[in-house]
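Ticket opened by: R.M.
Priority: normal
Category: complex prediction / small molecule

The reporter submitted a protein together with zinc ion and asked that the result be attached to this ticket for the collaborator who will pick it up next week. Submitted input follows.
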Amino acid sequence: MASRNTRLQRDRQRKEVPSPDSRMQEKKTETIQNRTWYGMNATVIIGPGFIHRAGWGRLLIPHPPVMNWLLRRGLTENARYALSLTHEFGHLQSVPLSVFYAAVNYAAIIAVGQANLMKIIVVFVSTHAAWEIISELFTITRDARFYRKCYEEVTIIPRTIFWFITAALTLIGWIIVLP
Ligand SMILES: [Zn+2]
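Result attached by the on-call engineer:
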């Protein structure tokens, strides 16, 4: 069933741009629609402008692309769009895993009777950081050769910052959760 598989279906459209200046790339909109492994139709829309939207059916959640902004520094336009779309789709693919992971974390602090507001906030931030790690690992493993090629001759500093921050936040969560 070709329509059921998870191949990327890219649909590119260019918005009208008054002049071919450097802001042209920010006006472009790229959309992917894919079926998730748990059977829901996912949509990711990047652009026009800064905001990304991702969700299922008509439920599209707008959000600022903080991590994609950091991770895609220095990439070509095509690489930036392709990897950002895959990363966002990775978030949707990993929703069940991330919800389960967060539930285990919350359950652990509740079970030992130590759930206070501070710990809940730390677990919230920490489990979101873990979700970022999962999504970027999804992006890398989906096409590792393409990923490597995209980052040839691109500084490793933004990616190092991403992995350091997300790993540190995840670890802090574990320290809080573990008795
Ligand atoms: Zn992300």
